[in-house]
Amino acid sequence: MEHRHAGAHRVDLVVYPGFKALEAIGPMSVFDYANVHLRQKGQPDGYTVRVVAAQTGLVQSDTLMGLQATHTLTQLEADGTGCTVLLVGSRHIEQVLAASPNLVDWVARVAPLVGRMIALCSGSFFLAAAGVLNGRRTATHWSVAGLLAQRFPKIDVDADAIYVRDGSYWTSAGVTAGIDLALAVVEQDFGHALALDVARDLVMYLKRPGGQSQFSVSLAAQSTQHSGVQAAQQWVLEHLDQPMPLALLAAKAAMSERNFRRVFQQETGCSPSMFVENARLERAKQLLENLGGLPLKTVAAKVGLGSEQALRHLFVRKLGITPVAYRERFGD
Questions:
Q1: C-alpha triplet 215, 331, 316: angle, nearest 5°
Q2: Which SMART domains does this UniProt record tie to the protein (predicted)?
């Protein structure tokens, strides 16, 4: 079913010094490509994008690029009813958050007024600090998922999601995941066909297979400062062919099972079992990519899954494709 609207959707992109450039440009490009396709069909533009900041003028990003803010936060607060607000993240979100109490207060006031409040990557910290995500499922960049869960325990942090929609609140994982989210916005506003056209232009999946954990397992093992969790994670990564009962992992961390489960979730944003599963998946992907002739039964054994059927089930559930299809697509 195609969706039609009387006027263009207004998207207000909120930036601040040090914002992530790619997180801003990616979604802006999605909305621009959507407009191009609508014009080709003889229809008016579907989106009007404005750049908003505390003050008008050039706002420097985390790269050599800056964006010219044409409207202020005060103006958006006055005329933002029903619009879509898109708040990008920062590489240094803790410092930016501490230095931006006015932006947090602004989010708290504006969020109930707008049609969609979207936070990309670590931009979710602004919404969390404003209290508008309490009790809601939330995505963020995998590297700060544990920190978000720790600082804001009333939030249900999904460390694996590419993006999450919970009512009028949308949040995404890091950087390019903002493009995935923007495609979902286009699909909601104008239907599947237009969103698919834009995805093809950008050489993107309309709905990419798998979650963000497929990119991050080994790096995530380095992101926690908790020595017990680090020890358990490292043991997992070095012994993937072996069984991984919770009791064993807790022992590696020198903790009780109950405390280990709680601390692991708090530190990493995912459960121990999810980490193990994602680690097995990542290693299986590496084997299929680099050792194309390895029998699937051998791959399954090397990652502790036991059978080809278990390997296939994991790939289909997490990535949406079979191990054979994955090897054909990505293998040497």
A1: 60
A2: HTH_ARAC
CA–CA distance, 263 with 269 (Å, rounded to integer): 10
**Full residue range of the structural domain in which residue 125 is found:** 9-208
pTM of the complete model: 0.66
**Angle 128-129-135 from CA coordinates, rounded to 5°:** 35
Cα–Cα distance for residue pair 215/160, rounded to 1 Å: 10
Pairing of strands 169-172, 163-166: antiparallel
| Nearest in space to 206 (alpha carbons), one of 197, 214, 218 | 197
Q: Does 320 or 46 have the greater pLDDT score?
A: 46
Which tens digit of pLDDT belongs to each residue from 107-152?
999 999 999 999 999 999 999 999 999 999 999 988 888 889 889 9
318 pLDDT band (50/70/90 cuts)? Answer: confident
199 plus 268 within the same structural domain: no
Domain count, the chain: 2
Phi, then psi, of 138 in degrees rounded to 5: -140, 140
Own/partner pairs, 67-71, CB within 8 angstroms, 24+ separation: 67/13, 67/15, 67/24, 69/15, 71/12
